[in-house]
Predict the structure.
Amino acid sequence: MSGNDSIEYISEGVFRPDTLARIDGQVHLVGSRCAACGDLRFPRALGCPVCHAPADALKPAILPRAGHVVTATRVERAIAPFKPPYLLAYVQLPDGPRVFCQLVAPSLEPRDVIGKACHLVVERLYEKSGEDVLGYKLEVLA
Amino acid sequence: MKVAVLGAGQVPFTGPSPLAMGALGASAARAAILDAGLEVKDMQMASVGSVYEHPSAGQRVLLHLGLNGIPLVNLENACASGSAAAIEAMRWIQAGVVDVALVVGVDKMASHYSSGPIALVNETDVFGAQGFTVPAYFGLIAEKHMADFGSTREDFATIAHKNRGYAAHNPDARFRQAPSLEEILASPIIASPLGKFDCCANGDGAAALVLASEAFVARSGARQPVWIRAAELGGGVLGDRLFDDPMTLLANQAYEAAGLGPQDIQVVECHDNFSVGEFEAYERLGFCPHGEAHLYLRAGKSRIGGAGAAFNPSGGLLGRSHPAGATGCVQIQSIVRQLRGQAGPLQHMDARVGLVQTSGGGVMELQSNATTVMIFSL
């Protein structure tokens, strides 16, 4: 998907304010596309790691909201502030990058979700100083 | 210029040690120097790998060794620090700067960390914000292989069983009690499909090597020098490890430099920080085709006495434990002992050529942060 510079980022309560945007009422991940070589990357790069173009060659890129699960694992031993169990995954976006993320699929095992379609949701990632910190997850579709 | 390993030594790997880091490193260095038939004063430079120690780890090692004034390089390359320190020393010799170099790898990870995953990134990082753990990353690799090719949790457990079984015969390994396959499979899951025994433990320990030039070897009349036939060091490659890893590229470079291939190699020490680390190495080092690691394993080819190469005959990281800086050096020590025929009950028959592979990680946008592949022969 094409990018533009007038993106309405979702920043309040989000762990990193340059990762999520609302486009036509729907939430999207925001990455970057290199104007020189076309490299599409998430999260956005500060300089192109492929062709070494400088930061001004990198434009925000709105990424597709849906993809499929390439692989997943159920985490049973976590590092604070995260509380197990939860599913971690790599999700392949069509014509885009692979995104490392938690999955929203509480009762499913990795073997049940690998290959499945999923779409972006904004959820609580963890708690910090008594406040929920929000971020992206991918919800597995039935 | 040819460079040889003249000596190798270690201190036993343990849980939290009361000894100072510098004392551990110096003890390993003395063992390596003794093994080389040399004296401390013969060392012309030192290259010291550590990851979780304070600055100037090498200075503290040399202080305990009573060696001062020689050029010293401290080197951190994540879990590949020890093998990278060996390659650094080799380059000093090849450049003609010195004839003899001391390599030390040391860490006290068991003292610094209790059990459980180590945090490599915090929650301001896109990986850290999702609850990343290192076991989870390797769980993702294992789950993908299971989904794509039909490998099973039992395959990974078999590697843990094999390596812990070897460690039971290695007096310097931290874990000398070999669990049964049933115990391994019944252990709690850390990150599916990997259970507790599929994950290496932190350790305290040190290992050391003495490297020397071909001219020095000839002058000294050293017995059983083990020659470095190839030594490749690669930095991080952009991407994720699910689809590729610099291990393959570096192995191919090493095979070309040595004029050898996987069919010529009888013993391998590879980076089994998780059982799937050894599993993926079967494929990525070229010992079996892509997608067939479980078949290589099930045929017993990676065992001592098997029809392939014996993988991690010293017990690997799973059996020895993992003092990160020491791991690369102790892997090389294991291969040196195998090639000299000094591995006792862990000896793989007819071991003539050995390979060491070490992976360092931590920046998750890269497949690996640092990878080394080295080939050795008598």
Observations:
- The first strand of chain B starts at residue 3 and ends at 10.
